[in-house]
Specification:
Layout lengths: L2 H19 L15 H18 L7 H12 L4 H10 L1 H9 L5 H16 L44 H12 L4 H18 L4 H15 L9 H4 L3 H10 L2 H18 L2
Helix pairs in contact: 2-3, 2-4, 2-12, 6-7, 6-8, 8-12, 9-11, 9-12
C-alpha cells in the first residue's frame, strides 16, 4: 500500500476509535425501520388526524385508515383527507347525536372566530342556520380535495365594527351547537383565511406563529413538545419552511384538541 494511502487509513482508524470512546458506553446503531420514513410520517399524521377529528382515544377504523393512508402515500393532501373525514357520514352521525357544546367551548369558539375574521377579505356571514349540522347525506369518506364545504352565505351589508361585536354575534348564533359543529365551522373559516393569504408566505408565517403562541396559553397538549412551545421564532421558521398544507393541519389540530378538551 503506498505510504500516503496507508497514513490516511491509519488516521481514519484513529478517528473512528475516538468516536467510540466518547461516552460511557457504545450505543448500537438503530436498525432502519421496515417502513420508509416518509411513509411512516404519513401514517403518524393520518392517525393523529383521525383520532383528533373524531375525538377518540385510539384509532377505531383500521380499514378506513389503511384506505386513506394509501391515498396519502399517492399524493393526497392533508387538507383533502381532512375534508373527506369531516364531510363523511361517520362525522355527520357524531355531529347529529352529540349534546350541545359547553358554555366555555362556545365562548372560546366565538372569540377565536372573531379573531380569525377581523382581517379577512371575505369572512363568512353566519346565521342561526350555520349552527345546525349538515343534512344527513352520504359524502365521500376519502380525500376530498375538490370539495368546498364553505357554505354560500349571505354577505353582510356592513362588517361589525369591533371584535367584541363580531364575537357577540357569533355567540348568539351558535348557542346550542354541538362540539362537532363548532370544530367543523371553525375549520372551514381557518382554511378560508389561509387560502386568502396563500400568496404571501411571510403573512401566513406571521399569523401562524402569533396564533400558536396565543393558543399555547390553553395548556392543552397538542401532541408534540415543539407544538406546546411558546416560541414565536420557532413557529415562524416552521411555517416558512413547511408546506401550506401542513401548516393548515397544525392549526386545525390545535383547535380540535382545545375544543375536544372543553366537552
Amino acid at each position: 500500500m503506498p505510504e500516503p494511502v496507508e497514513k490516511a487509513v491509519e488516521a481514519a482508524k484513529r478517528t473512528v476509535g475516538m468516536a467510540f470512546q466518547i461516552g460511557s458506553k457504545v450505543e448500537p446503531t438503530p436498525m432502519p425501520s421496515s417502513t420508509p420514513m416518509p411513509l411512516k410520517a404519513n401514517a403518524e399524521l393520518l392517525k393523529e388526524m383521525m383520532v383528533v377529528t373524531f375525538n377518540q382515544e385510539e384509532l377505531e377504523d383500521q380499514p378506513q385508515f389503511e384506505a386513506l393512508l394509501s391515498s396519502m402515500n399517492q399524493g393526497a393532501s392533508l387538507e383533502g383527507i381532512y375534508r373527506g373525514l369531516v364531510m363523511g357520514s361517520r362525522y355527520r352521525l357524531m355531529e347529529s347525536k352529540a349534546k350541545a357544546a359547553s358554555p366555555n367551548a362556545i365562548k372560546f369558539f366565538a372569540l377565536e372566530m372573531a379573531d380569525i375574521q377581523m382581517e379577512m377579505k371575505n369572512p363568512t356571514h353566519f346565521t342561526k342556520e350555520s349552527a345546525k349540522e349538515y343534512p344527513n347525506i352520504d359524502f365521500p369518506e376519502g380525500p376530498a380535495d375538490t370539495i368546498d364545504f364553505t357554505k354560500d352565505a349571505e354577505v353582510p351589508a356592513e362588517k361589525p365594527k369591533t371584535k367584541h361585536d363580531l364575537a357577540e354575534t357569533v355567540l348568539e348564533n351558535f348557542i346550542g351547537a354541538t362540539p362537532y359543529t363548532l370544530k367543523r365551522v371553525l375549520a372551514e373559516e381557518v382554511l378560508k383565511k389561509t387560502d386568502e393569504m396563500k400568496d404571501g408566505s411571510g403573512d401566513i408565517a406571521q399569523w401562524y406563529s402569533s396564533l400558536v403562541v396565543h393558543l399555547a396559553d390553553s395548556k392543552v397538549d397538542f401532541g408534540l413538545p415543539q407544538r406546546n412551545a411558546i416560541d414565536y421564532d420557532f413557529h415562524f421558521r416552521f411555517a416558512k419552511t413547511m408546506s401550506l398544507d401542513r401548516v393548515k393541519w397544525e392549526i386545525l389540530n390545535r383547535y380540535h384538541r382545545i375544543l375536544n378538551s372543553m366537552n
